[in-house]
Every structure is written in C-alpha cells, then in structure tokens.
Amino acid sequence: MEFFTDATIQLLSVLSKFCGSYGLGIIILTIIVRLLMWPLSVKQQHSMKVMQKMQPKMKMIQDRYKDDPQMLQRKMMEFYKENNFNPMSGCFPVLIQLPIFILLYQALISPQFIDLAGNAKFLFLNRLDATIRGTAAPSYDGEFMLSKNATFNLGKKAIVYFSDGTQEEVKVKSSKDNLRYMNNLTPGDVIEFKLALNTFPVETSESKTIQSADADITNISTREVEKVKFERKGDILVGEIPSKPANEQMNYDVLALVVIFGASMWLSTKVMTLSNKNSKQPLDPQQEQMQKMMGTTMPIVLTATFLFIPIPAGVLLYLVVSNIVQIIQTYVINKQLDAAEEAKSKVIDVKPEK
After folding, report:
1. What is the mean pLDDT of residues 200-227?
2. Which residues contact 333 (CB under 8 A, 6 or more apart)?
3. Side-chain half-sphere of 291: how many Cα atoms within 13 Å?
4. Are strands 133-134 and 236-241 parallel, antiparallel or unpaired?
5. Does 233 score more than 50 pLDDT?
6. Residues 249, 255, 261: CA angle, nearest 5 degrees
7. Does residue 207 lie in a domain region?
C-alpha cells in the first residue's frame, strides 16, 4: 500500500508542476480517471437502458415464480443468459473508483504529502489536507499540539549519527511499524517515542555504531511536523518532546465543500433519473419509486456521513469534480445511445421502380 501511496503523491506532484497548483493537479487527475473510465460508463448507461427494456419480461418471471425462490433465480439467470446481459456490469465503474478514492485518501493524509503540500491553498480552500474538524498546528516549534486519540508517523528520511563521529542521511526502512509511543497520551505531558535500530538501513561495525538520530515525526491529527532528537538507550533509540493541548476548530471552507459535494451528487442522480424518464420504455413503478428514493436519500446520507468522517479537502475536491464530469458524461453518452437506438429502429422501405 505504501508503494501506491508514494506513486499517487509523485503523480500529483508531476501534475501540480504542470498546471501550477496541487488543486488543479487533483482536478486533472479526476478528469483523466473519468476519461479512462468512459468505455465502462458507456457500458453502464447501456446496461441501464437494456435493463429498462427487459423490465416487463423480468416482472412477468418474478410474478410467476414468486413462491419458488430457487426456480425464480434459475429462470432469471436463464433470462440474463439468453439476452447476453450481466446485471453487475453497471457496478464496475463504482467498484473501480473505490481503490482510487482509497489511494487518494491515503496520499493526502500521509506525512509525505503534508510535508510537501499540506498547506497548499486552492480557490476558497485553505489547506488541501484539512478535514471538516481539525487543528492546524505550527510545525517545527519544538512541541506537539496534542489532540484526543492522536496518532503519529515517522518521516521518510532521517540523519543518523555514528560513534566514530560521522553522520549520514538515510531513508527510513519501515516508518509505520517501527515507531512506538504510548496510546491515550495526555496533553501537556512529555511524549516519549521509541525506534528500533534496524529502522535505518545503514552499515555498522564494532567501531561504528548508531548513537543518535534526528527524525521528523508527523502528528496525523493536527498535520504538525516536529524534528525529534533520538538518543541510544541499550538496543533502541528514545526521543522526547513536550506537548500542549490542541484546540479543535471547524473548517468552514471544508464544510462548504461537503455541501457542494452533496449538491453535485444530487444533480448527478437527477440527470440519471431524467435520462431514464425520457426513454421510450416506461419504468416499472416500483423501480421508479426506488430510483426517486435513492436519488434523494443517497446524497443526504453521504453528505451527512462526510460531516463526521475526516475526509481531506483534496479528496472531497476529487469527488465533486468526479460528479460534475459524470453529469456531462451521462448527458453525452445518453444522447449517443439514443441516437444509435433511433437509427437502428428506423426501417426504410425502398419500393422498386415500375
């Protein structure tokens, strides 16, 4: 997972250099993803239209075998096979987007991104790594602002000092697994961190041993980075740094983005519903009622969820742009499919000349 997170950050870095900001980099990444998914989106829209045409026949099978679930399942599978239809084909675009969402989430909360561009601004957003509730603490001031259930991560590089007086900048071997600290820390107390010696992949000998190290540690909750001095104690390295209570605040710019996300999702489902209404094949009343409920309920549920789940502003930006592009895709694809269907249905009778 760490490899893919690093790759995502590198891609965002390249895109940001190309377009001038990390916010635009996320937008370009979103458009690229949606364009790559265009063939799947076409299949999804086509699948929905086929499902709509097949609805009357499916309803007949369901009514006929409603008292025999096993026979109903078998007949439905036979019906799908006869019509060369996969009911799961419409879910592929959603399933493919899920790992992309996870990768982007992991990238934007990672210490690497926080160090690189965590304080990057875009439009009305103050920080791309900010969540709806959080604490933006100053970095490298010699103490951590400690919030409830704080978690820490070790930076990618560190300076290691040896017993022979030399020093070396090295890459950290396993930043996530080797850093140790007490859970349920109390704000105001000194935080003690511990590192295994094999955290740093360096060559040592009897005359050259690791004595100390300077390493960056990131507080994931506050996105604060501090340099901690580690000293060797036996077979481990121990570092200490003071802390003070963190004041949690509401980030209203992120709240506004959550609202925009909800509106864009509602509009996306509305466009999808209207495209089905404009079809020549009428929807089953039950299916139509379900679509109406989903079109209203899902945007509200997801928007409410994002009010409590700490989603970074950059990820919300990705979701908003993705919804906007999907609205355009839905309109264009449905126009293309309707035109193709209309051309296919036209039968021109050419009468022979007498």
Report:
1. 83
2. 41, 42, 45
3. 18
4. unpaired
5. yes
6. 155
7. yes
User: Whole-model pTM above 0.70?
Assistant: no
Please enumerate in sequence order all residues whose Cβ is within 8 A of that of 66, keeping only pairs 6 or more positions apart, or say none.
72
Contact between 57 and 351 (Cβ < 8 Å): no
Query: Of 204, 227, 207, 206, nearest to 215 (Cα)?
Result: 227
Co-location of 160 and 71 in the same domain: no
What is the domain range of residue 277?
Answer: 2-112+251-342
Same domain, 241 and 282: no
Q: Are residues 107 and 185 in the same domain?
A: no
Residue with tokens 């945007």, as numbered in its chain: 299
For residues 238 and 256, membership in a common domain is answered with no
235 part of a folded domain: yes
Give the end of a domain, one of 219, 245, 271. Answer: 245
Same domain, 17 and 104: yes
Residues 176 and 223 in one domain: yes
Q: What is the pLDDT of residues 261-309, one digit of tens each?
A: 888 888 877 777 665 555 545 555 555 555 566 656 777 777 777 777 7
> Apex CA 218: angle with CA 214 and CA 219, to 5°?
135
79-83, 111-115, 233-237 — most confident range: 233-237
- The tens digit of pLDDT for each residue in 94-133 reads 666 677 777 777 777 676 676 666 667 788 888 777 777 7
Q: Tell me how far apart the alpha carbons of residues 311 and 268 are, in angstroms, rounded to a whole number.
A: 21
Burial of 217 (0-12, 13-18, 19+ CB in 10 A): buried
Q: How confident is the model at residue 349 (pLDDT cuts 50, 70, 90)?
A: very low
Distances (CA, A) of 264 to 19, 98, 322: 24, 18, 9
Q: Give yes or no: residues 288 and 206 share one domain.
A: no
- 25 shares its domain with 87: yes
Last residue of a domain, one of 217, 245, 273: 245
For residues 251 and 256, give the distance between their C-alpha atoms in angstroms, rounded to a whole number. 9
